[in-house]
Amino acid sequence: MSSFPPEVRNLVEHFARDRDTLRGPAYNEAQAHQEFIDPFFKTLGWDIDNEQGLAGAQTAHEKTVIQRQVDTSDRQTDQLVYEPNCLTGAEIRVAEEHAQ
């Protein structure tokens, strides 16, 4: 299991540790989603919480419009966070990589 991301390993260990409780009648599907399923898919890069705002888009045009709004919002955030702190391009890349 060492080749798995640490987040996945933690989920497996958590399940193994609490297996009897988690398989009991008091543990429900909503709890399983919150504790295991959603974190697993987030680790794989899925946008479970629709942070990109693309779930409601139906057409390619709507998706493009929403993606442009997301990109604009990202640029505005960058201006508010990075520019006042005088971060270099390398420092911004490190911050962006660490945030993901």
Question: Could you list some keywords that capture this structure?
Answer:
100 residues, mainly alpha, 2 domains, 5 helices, flat
Describe the protein.
- With 100 residues, the protein is mostly helical.
- The protein folds into 2 domains: 6-43, no CATH class; 60-99.
- Helix content is 64%, strand content 0%.
- The protein contains 5 helices and no strands.
- The chain has helices spanning 6-17, 19-22, 29-43, 60-81, 89-99.
- The longest helix is centred in the last third of the chain and has 22 residues, at 60-81.
- The relative contact order is 0.06.
Short description:
The chain is mainly alpha-helical and 100 residues long. Helices cover 64% and strands 0% of the residues. It is flat and about 50 Å long.
Order of helical and strand elements: HHHHH
Structural class: mainly alpha
* Spatial gap, N to C terminus: 22 Å
Tell me the fraction of residues in β-strands, as a range.
Answer: under 5%
- Give the total of beta strands: 0
Largest sheet: none
Proportion in helices: 55-70%
Residue windows where pLDDT falls under 50 for at least 5 positions: none
